[in-house]
Amino acid sequence: MIVALSERGLAHFRALFHDKSSADTIDAKDAILLKKRYRCTVQCDHEKVIDMFKHIQYKLPYIIDQAVIANVP
Predict the structure, then answer these.
(1) What Å distances lie between residue 3 and 6, 9, 12, 20, 42, CA to CA?
(2) What is the mean pLDDT of residues 49-66?
(3) For residue 16, what are the contacts with CB-CB under 8 A and spacing of at least 6?
(4) CA distance 8 to 14
């Protein structure tokens, strides 16, 4: 979460998010000085799911190159 304390700060971050969203390639996105980070916490006793997340963990940063569409009921 970002909270801008001034109009100038708001304009700066708005421009960064716009530039990041409109970039066409991964390299163009990496060139923008805005790094988005996400954290996921999983609590599960099922060994298969735990192994899957351990496998993904070693491939970080994990890049999603497809559109993410929310599944809303």
Answers:
(1) 9, 9, 12, 18, 28
(2) 69
(3) 32, 33, 34
(4) 10
